[in-house]
Design a protein that fits this description.
By secondary structure, this protein is of the alpha+beta class. A four-stranded mixed β-sheet has the order 2-1-3-4. One of its GO terms (cellular component) is cytoplasm.
């Protein structure tokens, strides 16, 4: 029993379409990640927008934590953030809900949550995208 030739052609076209969709989705995902990292690197040295610059961030070190209450990775980072905010006394911590202050978040250029912005003397020192471990965050805050 053999498979009819028209059916083989349809199957070949179907698998070609699936392959092309997979390739484009990988390109899109990696392109988006590349863009986020590029944008985060461009923020280094920029002043923190006035909407986000609370008085305690003008001098010394600080961390602005952007989160969303319904974000799973944010819920994983939350205990780390709370622990470090209690332990590290020389660092000022600010927590911003992206759903409550979308204009301020848009001004600084945050595209995804969780994101953390390290601030030193009112200027952006580094932008951390995505969830990070306690050790990495502690090392960056020293």
């Amino acid at each position: 029993m053999s498979i009819p030739e028209p059916l083989l052609k349809v199957a070949a076209i179907f698998f070609d379409v699936i392959f092309v969709l997979l390739v484009f989705s990988f390109i899109f995902i990696f392109g988006l990640r590349f863009y986020w990292r590029w944008k985060a690197k461009r923020l280094k040295g920029e002043p923190v927008p006035e909407e986000l610059l609370v008085p305690k961030l003008k001098k010394g070190k600080g961390l602005i934590y952007f989160y969303s209450p319904n974000c799973r990775p944010c819920q994983m980072v939350e205990p780390i953030y709370k622990k470090l905010s209690k332990e590290l006394k020389g660092v000022h911590f600010v927590k911003i809900n992206v759903l409550e202050k979308p204009e301020a978040v848009r001004k600084i250029g945050i595209l995804a949550t969780p994101s953390m912005v390290l601030v030193k003397d009112g200027r952006i020192k580094e932008v951390i995208l995505g969830p990070v471990s306690e050790g990495v965050l502690r090392e960056k805050l020293k």
